[in-house]
C-alpha cells in the first residue's frame, strides 16, 4: 500500500537497504500468528492441572477467543477476524473428521450401526422439526415480538441448530471417558447426522429462497429423495476413495517418504469431491477413513504409519483448537448481535427438552432390538452429551442476510447455544458422569485368552445362527470377513501384509514383546543380563537344577530353562510348573516349544547385551555351540530343500567358516548364560553332542527338512538326536542366531519379502510389534526362499531404523 | 403342522424366562427341517447346513449339541440323537439376559453359559482342559486362516495356557503342578468379562412372556 509506494518514490532517490513489507506478508503472517496464539494458549492451559481437570479445554479456548476478540475490537474498532464458513468447511473440519474416521473402532461402530443410524437420522429430523415448529408456534403467540420470519425460516433455523456436533462431542467426551458403547453411539450419531443436516439445511434454505408460497408437494418429495441421494452418494464417494487409497498404498513401497501424503491427499479429495457433487462431504471423508484404515495400516511401513497417526492427530487437534478460539473471537462482533430474550431462551429450552424426549423414545424402540440394553444412565448421558458446536455456527454464518431476514438473530442465538452447550454442559458433564456412576472404559491389557475366546464366540454364535436358520449379526459379519479375505485383501493388501494379519497373532506378538521388554528392562535395571546366573535368582527360579533330569532330551533343554529370569515374569513360573507336571515326551516337547516362543525375545535381547557383558565360561560356550550347530543344521536343511544344492553348498562353506570362528569367538554366541551347577555332567553330555553333530550334519539335510514344523519335530523326536533337542525347539532361534552369523558374512543375501528380521533390525530396541512379529514363527511366510535368513516384508523397514541408512 | 408345538413340561422348566412361543415355533420348524420330519436329529443332519461348513470349529459345536453334559443328563458321553427338547435345551444356553434378573439368577445364568463353553473345550470330559485340548481348540479356531501354520497355533495355545495359569494360580510354588484348567479356574479367567452380553443370539431375545403350557 502506501509504504511501498512511498519507498518506491524514495527508491528513485536512493536504495532502501531494508524495508518493512507488512502488506506483502500480511495474510499468511496473521494466519500463522493465530495458529501460534492458539497453540500457546493450549500450553498455558495445561500448565494448571487443576483447571484442566474441571474445565474442558474447548471452553477455555472459547473464553480466550472472546477475550482476544475483545482486544482486537478495542484496538481496531472493527471485528476483523471471524470464523468464515469457507475456512471452516474446507480447512478446519476435514482433518477432524478424517481423524475420527481413520481411528474409528470399526467393529464397535458397525456393531452399533443400527442404533447410530436411528439416532442420527430420526433423531436429527425429530429435533429439527420439533424445535422449528415449537419456535414457530411460540412466535405465533407473539411473545417474541416482531420478527421477519415465517414457518420456513424457523424450520431452517431448527435444522441447523438440531445437529449434534462431532467436534464438540469429541472435545468433551475425550475428557470424560464413558464406556465405549455409549461413546460410539453419541459420536457416531454426530458424524452421520451430517447428511440429514445438509439435506434439511439446503432444502429449507432453497425453500426460503423460493418463497413459502411456491413450495409444492413435488419440492417436498424432491427433498426426501435428496436425503437418500446425499447420504448414500456421500458414503459411496467415501468408499470409492478408500478403495483408491488402499490400492495406491499397496504400491508405495519405494516411495516411503511420501507415503503418508497419500493418505491425506486422497482423503481430502474425497471430501472435496463430495462437496463438489453437493453430497455429504463429512460422510464421504468419514467412510473413506473407516474403510481404508485396515488396508492402509497393513500396507504402509511402520514409520509411515506413525507419521500418519501423528500428523492426523496434530492437524485434528490444531483445527479443533483454532475452531474453538475463533468461535470465541467471532462472537465479539457488534454487527451481528441481535438480542431477543424470548427467542434465545426458548431455543435453549426446546433443544434440551426435545433432545431428552427424542432420546427416550428412540432408546425405548431400540431396546426392543438391541442385545445390550441402553439404560437410563446411558440415556441421560446421551441427552446431555448432545452438544452443538462449530458446524451449527458455520451453517448459520452461511445464511444469506437478504434471503433470511432474521439472520443476525439466528447467528446470535446460535452463538449463545453453542457457548452454552460447550461451556456449561462441557463443564458439568464430567461431574454428572461421575455422580451417576456411568460405566467407564475398562482399560485392560490385551489378554490372549480373551482374544481367543472372542474368536471362538464369533464362530460359535455364527454357527448357532446358521443352525437355527436365522440371519443374524454374526452371520453377516462372517460373510463379510469371508468376502474380505477372498477378494478385497488380495487386491488391496500387499502380499507380505496379507499373511500376517491375524488379530490373535497380533496379541500374541504383543505379549511376547512385552515380556521381552520387561526382561530387558530388568536387565538394564540390574546393570547386565548376567543377573540370570546369580545364585540368588537361581533360588527364585523354581527349577531345581541340582538333580539330574530324567530324559536326555530334557536335560539338554534344561540349559534353556535356566535362562529364565525368575522375578521378571509370572509366566516363567507357570511354565516351570507345567514342565514338572508333564509326564509324557510329547508334552515335554510341546512345553519346550512353548518356551522357545516365549523365550525367543529374551534370547534376542540377551544376544545383544551379552555380546559384551557376560563372561562366558567353558560350558556356556559349549552350550552355545550346540545350539548353533543345531540351528545351523536346520537352517541349512531348510534351505537345501527349498533352494537346491547350490545354496546349501554356500551355506556349508560359511557354516564351516563359522564353526571355526565360533570356537574362537565366544562372545558372539547368543545363548547366554547357562548356569551350571553340574559342570561335569553337563560337559560329558555336550562333548557327546558335539561329536554327534559333527558327523551327522552333512547327512541330515533330507531328514531334517522343514516341510512342516510338526513333521520336523516328529522326525527329530523319533530319531532321537541327542544333540538336537535344542534344535527341535528352536526353529526360530536358529534363524535368528544364524542371522547374526550370516549377516556378518553375507549381507548380499538379503532380498525382498522374506520373513526373518535382518541383523540390523534386531539391533534395534525396542522392537516395533511388526518387527517382532517376524521374530516368532517364521512359518508365517509361505515364501520359502531364504526365509530363515532374510528380513520380513519390506527391507526398508529395518533399514530405516538406522540413521545412516540411505535406502529410503 | 403349523400349530403351536406341544412342548413337554420339562422344557418349560428349563426355558423359564426364556423363549417366547413364537420363537419355539420357529425353532420347531427349523428342527423339523433339519431332521427331515423325523423326531430326532443325528450328527449327520447338521451336514445339511451349508454355511456351517466353513466354520472352523464346526466339529466342536455339533459335538456340543450331542454332549450329554450339555443336555443336562446325568450320564456322560455323547448321545446318538437328540429330540426337540434337547435341541431347545442347547439353544437356551444362548438366550440373552433379561432386564429383570436378580443377582442370583444372573450368576446362575453366567455359570451355565461358561459351563457350556467349558464342555466345548474339554473334549475328553475329564473336567479339566489340558494343554493338548486347548491346543486342539486353538488350532481349529485358527484353521480358518490359511496362512497360519500349525506351529503358530500351538505356540499361541501354549501362550494362552500360560496366561491362564498365571491368572488362575498366580505365583506357584516350586512343587506345584498345573494340570489343566478346571472349571473354577475357567470361571476365574472370565471374572472381569461379562460373558452374558457376549454369548447370546439375538432372536432368542426379548419378552419374558412366561409361557404356560
Gross morphology of chain A is globular
Identify the CATH architecture of chain B.
Orthogonal Bundle
Q: What is the radius of gyration of chain A?
A: 34 Å
For the record, the CATH class of chain B is: Mainly Alpha
Q: Can you identify the CATH class of the domain at 85-311 and 338-436 in chain A? A: Mainly Alpha
* Most extensive interface, chain pair and sizes: A-B, 75 and 71 residues
The span between the termini of chain A is: 47 Å
Q: Count of DSSP helices of chain B?
A: 9
Characterization of the model:
The complex is a heterodimer of chains A (808) and B (213). Chain A has 808 residues and is an all-alpha fold. Chain A has a domain at 85-311 and 338-436: Na+/H+ antiporter like fold (Up-down Bundle). Chain A is 72% helix and 0% strand. Chain A has helices at 2-11, 22-47, 49-54, 57-76, 85-102, 106-111, 113-141, 151-162, 166-176, 180-210, 217-250, 259-276, 281-299, 302-331, 341-367, 376-384, 390-397, 407-436, 448-467, 473-492, 495-499, 503-526, 535-540, 552-561, 570-581, 585-613, 618-643, 645-664, 679-696, 709-719, 725-729, 731-745, 759-763, 769-775, 796-801. In chain A, α12 (259-276) runs antiparallel to α13 (281-299). The two termini of chain A are 47 Å apart. With 213 residues, chain B is mainly α. Chain B has one domain (17-204): EF-hand (Recoverin, domain 1, Orthogonal Bundle). A two-stranded antiparallel sheet of chain B has the order 1-2. A two-stranded antiparallel ribbon of chain B has the order 3-4. In chain B, α3 (58-66) crosses α5 (103-121). The two termini of chain B are 18 Å apart. At the A-B interface, α19, α20, α22, α25 and α26 of A face α2, α6 and α7 of B. Chain A: Belongs to the monovalent cation:proton antiporter 1 (CPA1) transporter (TC 2.A.36) family. Chain A: Residues 650-680, 786-808 are annotated as: Disordered. Chain A: Keywords: Antiport, Cell membrane, Endosome, Ion transport, Membrane, Phosphoprotein, Signal, Sodium, Sodium transport, Transmembrane, Transmembrane helix, Transport.
Amino acid at each position: 500500500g502506501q509504504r511501498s509506494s512511498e519507498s518506491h518514490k524514495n527508491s528513485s532517490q536512493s536504495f532502501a537497504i531494508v524495508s518493512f513489507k507488512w502488506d506483502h506478508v500480511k495474510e499468511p503472517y496473521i494466519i500463522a500468528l493465530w495458529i501460534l496464539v492458539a497453540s500457546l494458549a493450549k500450553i498455558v492451559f495445561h500448565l494448571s492441572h487443576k483447571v484442566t481437570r474441571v474445565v474442558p479445554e474447548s471452553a477455555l479456548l472459547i473464553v480466550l477467543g472472546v477475550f482476544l476478540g475483545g482486544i482486537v475490537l478495542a484496538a481496531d474498532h472493527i471485528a476483523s477476524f471471524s470464523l468464515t464458513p469457507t475456512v471452516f468447511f474446507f480447512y478446519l473440519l476435514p482433518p477432524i473428521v478424517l481423524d475420527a474416521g481413520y481411528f474409528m473402532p470399526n467393529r464397535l461402530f458397525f456393531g452399533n450401526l443400527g442404533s447410530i443410524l436411528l439416532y442420527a437420522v430420526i433423531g436429527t429430523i425429530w429435533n429439527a422439526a420439533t424445535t422449528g415448529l415449537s419456535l414457530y408456534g411460540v412466535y405465533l403467540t407473539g411473545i417474541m415480538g416482531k420478527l421477519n420470519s415465517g414457518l420456513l425460516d424457523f424450520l431452517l433455523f431448527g435444522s441447523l441448530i438440531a445437529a449434534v456436533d462431532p467436534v464438540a462431542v469429541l472435545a468433551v467426551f475425550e475428557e470424560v471417558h464413558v464406556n465405549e458403547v455409549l461413546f460410539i453411539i453419541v459420536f457416531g450419531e454426530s458424524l452421520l447426522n451430517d447428511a440429514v443436516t445438509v439435506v434439511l439445511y439446503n432444502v429449507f434454505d432453497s425453500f426460503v429462497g423460493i418463497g413459502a408460497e411456491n413450495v409444492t408437494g413435488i419440492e417436498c418429495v424432491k427433498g426426501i429423495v435428496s436425503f437418500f441421494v446425499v447420504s448414500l452418494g456421500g458414503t459411496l464417494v467415501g468408499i470409492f476413495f478408500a478403495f483408491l487409497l488402499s490400492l495406491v498404498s499397496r504400491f508405495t513401497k519405494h516411495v516411503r517418504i511420501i507415503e503418508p501424503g497419500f493418505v491425506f491427499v486422497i482423503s481430502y479429495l474425497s471430501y472435496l469431491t463430495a462437496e463438489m457433487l453437493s453430497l455429504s462431504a463429512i460422510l464421504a471423508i468419514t467412510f473413506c477413513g473407516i474403510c481404508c484404515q485396515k488396508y492402509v495400516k497393513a500396507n504402509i511401513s511402520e514409520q509411515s504409519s506413525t507419521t500418519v497417526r501423528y500428523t492426523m492427530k496434530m492437524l485434528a487437534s490444531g483445527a479443533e483448537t483454532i475452531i474453538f478460539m475463533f468461535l470465541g473471537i467471532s462472537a465479539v462482533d457488534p454487527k451481528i448481535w441481535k438480542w431477543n430474550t424470548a427467542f434465545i431462551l426458548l431455543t435453549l429450552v426446546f433443544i434440551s427438552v426435545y433432545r431428552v424426549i427424542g432420546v427416550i423414545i428412540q432408546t425405548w424402540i431400540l431396546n426392543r432390538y438391541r442385545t445390550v440394553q441402553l439404560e437410563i444412565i446411558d440415556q441421560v448421558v446421551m441427552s446431555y452429551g448432545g452438544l452443538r458446536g462449530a458446524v451449527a455456527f458455520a451453517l448459520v454464518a452461511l445464511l444469506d442476510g437478504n434471503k433470511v431476514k432474521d439472520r443476525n438473530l439466528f447467528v446470535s442465538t446460535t452463538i449463545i447455544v453453542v457457548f452454552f452447550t460447550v461451556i456449561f454442559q462441557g463443564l458439568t458433564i464430567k461431574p454428572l458422569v461421575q455422580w451417576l456412576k456411568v460405566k467407564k472404559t475398562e482399560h485392560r491389557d490385551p489378554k490372549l485368552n480373551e482374544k481367543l475366546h472372542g474368536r471362538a464366540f464369533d464362530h460359535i454364535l455364527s454357527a448357532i445362527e446358521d443352525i437355527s436358520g436365522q440371519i443374524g449379526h454374526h452371520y453377516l459379519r462372517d460373510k463379510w470377513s469371508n468376502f474380505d479375505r477372498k477378494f478385497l485383501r488380495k487386491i488391496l493388501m500387499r502380499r507380505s501384509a496379507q499373511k500376517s494379519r491375524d488379530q490373535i497373532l497380533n496379541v500374541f506378538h504383543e505379549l511376547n514383546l512385552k515380556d521381552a521388554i520387561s526382561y530387558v528392562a530388568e536387565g538394564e535395571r540390574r546393570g547386565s543380563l548376567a543377573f540370570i546366573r546369580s545364585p540368588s535368582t537361581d533360588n527364585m527360579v523354581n527349577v531345581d537344577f541340582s538333580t539330574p533330569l530324567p530324559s536326555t532330551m530334557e536335560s539338554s533343554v534344561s540349559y534353556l530353562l535356566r535362562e529364565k529370569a525368575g522375578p521378571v515374569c509370572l509366566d516363567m513360573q507357570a511354565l516351570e510348573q507345567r514342565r514338572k507336571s508333564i509326564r509324557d515326551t510329547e508334552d515335554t516337547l510341546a512345553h519346550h516349544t512353548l518356551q522357545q516362543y516365549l523365550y525367543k525375545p529374551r534370547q534376542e535381547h540377551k544376544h545383544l547385551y551379552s555380546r559384551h557383558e557376560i563372561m562366558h565360561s567353558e560350558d556356556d560356550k559349549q552350550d552355545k555351540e550346540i545350539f548353533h550347530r543345531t540351528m545351523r543344521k536346520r537352517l541349512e536343511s531348510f534351505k537345501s530343500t527349498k533352494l537346491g544344492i547350490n545354496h546349501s553348498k554356500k551355506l556349508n562353506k560359511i557354516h564351516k567358516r563359522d564353526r571355526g570362528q565360533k570356537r574362537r569367538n565366544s562372545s558372539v554366541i547368543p545363548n547366554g548364560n547357562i548356569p551350571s551347577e553340574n559342570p561335569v555332567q553337563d560337559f560329558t553330555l555336550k562333548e557327546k553332542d558335539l561329536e554327534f553333530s559333527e558327523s551327522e550334519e552333512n547327512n541330515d539335510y533330507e531328514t531334517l527338512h522343514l516341510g512342516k514344523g510338526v513333521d520336523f519335530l516328529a522326525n527329530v523326536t523319533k530319531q532321537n538326536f541327542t544333540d538336537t533337542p535344542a534344535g527341535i525347539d528352536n526353529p526360530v532361534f536358529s534363524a535368528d542366531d544364524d542371522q547374526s552369523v550370516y549377516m556378518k558374512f553375507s549381507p548380499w543375501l538379503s532380498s525382498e519379502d522374506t520373513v526373518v528380521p535382518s541383523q540390523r533390525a534386531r539391533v534395534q530396541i525396542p522392537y516395533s510389534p511388526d518387527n517382532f512379529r517376524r521374530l516368532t514363527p517364521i512359518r508365517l511366510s509361505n515364501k520359502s526362499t531364504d526365509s530363515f535368513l532374510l528380513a520380513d516384508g519390506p527391507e526398508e523397514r529395518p533399514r530405516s531404523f538406522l540413521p545412516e541408512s540411505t535406502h529410503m | 403342522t403349523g400349530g403351536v408345538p406341544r412342548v413337554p413340561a420339562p422344557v418349560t422348566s428349563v426355558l423359564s424366562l426364556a423363549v417366547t412361543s413364537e420363537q419355539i415355533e420357529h425353532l420347531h420348524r427349523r428342527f423339523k427341517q433339519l431332521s427331515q420330519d423325523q423326531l430326532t436329529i443325528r450328527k449327520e443332519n447338521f451336514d445339511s447346513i451349508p454355511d456351517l461348513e466353513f466354520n472352523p470349529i464346526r466339529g466342536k459345536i455339533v459335538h456340543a449339541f450331542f454332549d450329554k453334559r450339555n443336555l443336562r443328563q446325568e450320564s456322560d458321553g455323547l448321545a446318538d440323537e437328540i429330540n426337540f427338547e434337547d435341541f431347545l435345551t442347547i439353544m437356551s444356553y444362548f438366550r440373552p439376559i433379561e432386564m429383570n434378573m436378580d443377582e442370583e439368577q444372573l450368576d446362575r445364568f453366567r455359570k451355565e453359559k461358561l459351563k457350556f463353553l467349558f464342555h466345548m473345550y474339554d473334549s475328553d470330559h475329564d473336567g479339566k482342559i489340558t494343554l493338548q485340548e486347548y491346543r486342539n481348540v486353538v488350532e481349529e479356531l485358527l484353521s480358518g486362516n490359511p496362512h497360519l501354520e500349525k506351529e503358530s497355533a500351538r505356540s499361541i495355545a501354549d501362550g494362552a495356557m500360560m496366561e491362564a495359569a498365571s491368572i488362575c494360580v498366580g505365583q506357584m510354588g516350586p512343587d506345584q503342578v498345573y494340570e489343566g484348567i478346571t472349571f473354577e479356574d475357567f470361571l476365574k479367567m472370565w471374572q472381569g468379562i461379562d460373558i452374558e452380553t457376549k454369548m447370546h443370539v439375538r432372536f432368542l431375545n426379548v419378552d419374558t412372556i412366561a409361557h404356560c403350557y
